[in-house]
Design goal:
This protein is α/β, with parallel strands linked by helices. The protein has two domains: 131 residues, Up-down Bundle (Four Helix Bundle (Hemerythrin (Met), subunit A)), CATH 1.20.120.420; 202 residues, Translation initiation factor eif-2b, domain 2 (Rossmann fold, 3-Layer(aba) Sandwich). Helices cover 40% and strands 17% of the residues. Strand 1 and strand 2 form a beta hairpin. Helix 2 packs antiparallel against helix 6. The chain binds 5-S-methyl-1-O-phosphono-5-thio-D-ribulose (MRU). 5-S-methyl-1-O-phosphono-5-thio-D-ribulose (MRU) binds next to helix 2 and strand 9.
């Protein structure tokens, strides 16, 4: 299942706001509309928005390629800044745009006519590398899963959140394909229900046994011994191993500690912010209160009260049993093991 791909001169996105009841593919040729699609979560999930952002930069270059070099560079700079700004927490967005920007620093990129082809090739590479990374994460991660395990996951870190296959769901897919006879609990993940709408949809499509629970049921499932491990994705991992992920992840990590359940984070190295020392510096996206006040247009809370809607939280590295990357499983102490990972040349 590919949530983002390029075909016949247009960027295609599965509209994830409509899943699971409607499967609609939208077409984009204007980078501003792609940025809006990221903001409104037509496409979401850290790696998927990285890939989408890369194609948005390429679409901007197509639009500006007939301008003189100086004007081209100026417009591209503005476009890149705009694309980077639409969601602040997932580092893959800025990472992918920066990887495209590097191309402008060589003679091919500075020439509008040659830049366009180079940018398309780079966006394709980011997309293909993401799929390969997810497959590798799956292979490394499935070794941590025992036969017959029931795994809890939160939000959607699946094919829909990446270029394909998924990170946390990549581990689950690989364990299932290895014949480990696993089962999955999916948290529904309020307020936008990525677990109910997307994770349950993906797993059911693949025939992987999935049970949906509301977020407040997870602790009780752990108490009853029904959950053997937790696998989640990440939006940004800092150099010390702190992990930003969907709101609710931190609470799960505390519950996992209390019940002595392994808590694994599955993420590609493109989600590691090697320049940020700790999770204290991560900007947490605050979203529209109406996401809490309404469900599918139906008001569920009174007028005149306050709302807070942080989209992510930060799980401290002490609560993370291991981080599963495409380069292998990284164990504590993360301040030593994370810097040993190799970073792709930019
Ligand atoms: O707000 P979202 O849906 O973009 O949040 C997504 C998550 O928190 C995912 O768990 C994370 O991006 C990892 S996706 C492989």
């Amino acid at each position: 299942m590919k949530p983002v791909y390029f075909e016949n001169g247009a960027l295609k996105l599965i509209d994830q706001t409509l899943l699971p009841t409607e499967e609609v593919i939208r077409s984009y040729t204007d980078y501003r509309e792609v940025a809006e699609a990221i903001k409104t979560m037509v496409v979401r999930g850290a790696p998927a928005i990285g890939v989408t952002a890369a194609y948005a930069v390429y679409l901007a270059a197509e639009e500006f390629k007939t301008l003189p070099t100086d004007a081209f560079m100026l417009h591209m700079k503005d476009a890149c800044e705009h694309i980077k700004s639409v969601r602040p927490t997932a580092v893959n967005l800025a990472w992918a745009v920066e990887r495209m920007v590097v191309l402008f620093k060589n003679p091919v990129g500075r020439n509008p006519k040659t830049a366009v082809a180079a940018l398309k090739a780079e966006a394709d590479a980011i997309c293909e590398e993401d799929i390969a990374m997810c497959r590798a994460i799956g292979e490394h991660g499935q070794k941590l899963i025992n036969r017959g395990d029931t795994i809890l996951t939160h939000c959607n870190a699946g094919a829909l959140a990446t270029a394909d296959y998924g990170t946390a769901l990549g581990v689950i897919r690989a364990a299932y394909d290895a014949g480990k006879n696993i089962k999955v609990y999916a948290d529904e993940t309020r307020p936008l229900l990525q677990g109910a709408r997307l994770t349950a949809y993906e797993l059911a499509k693949d025939g992987i046994p999935v049970t949906l629970i509301t977020d407040n049921m997870a602790g009780w499932m752990m108490k009853q011994g029904k959950i053997k491990c937790i696998v989640v994705g990440a939006d940004r991992i800092t150099r010390n191993g702190d992990v930003a992920n969907k709101i609710g992840t931190y609470a799960l990590s505390v519950l996992a500690q209390a019940h002595r359940i392994p808590f694994y984070v599955a993420a590609p190295t493109s989600t590691i912010d090697f320049g940020m020392l700790s999770g204290d510096d991560i900007v947490i996206e605050q979203r529209d209160p109406d996401e809490i006040k309404y469900i599918k247009g139906q008001q569920i809370a009174p007028d005149g009260i306050n709302f807070e809607n942080p989209a992510f939280d930060v799980t401290p590295h002490q609560n993370v049993t291991a981080i599963i990357t495409e380069q292998g499983v990284v164990s504590p102490p993360y301040y030593r093991t994370i810097p040993r990972l190799t970073i792709k040349d930019r």
